[in-house]
Amino acid sequence: MRVWLVFLSQLWIVFSAGAMGFTEDPQEKLTKSWDLAAVKTLEIRGQVDFELVPGPEPKVTVEASRALFDQLTVSNWWGAVTVAVESGLRGPREQGPVKVIVILPDLIELTVSDRSIGRGTWPGASGTVRVGDRSTLDLTLDGGAFEVEASWLTVVTLRGKVDRLLTTLRHQSRADTTRLTVGEAEVALDEESVYEAGSTGKALGTVRHTSKVKVTSPGPWEGVVFKEDSVLEDRPGPPPP
Question: What CATH fold (topology level) applies to the domain 24-111?
Answer without folding.
Answer: Pectate Lyase C-like (2.160.20)
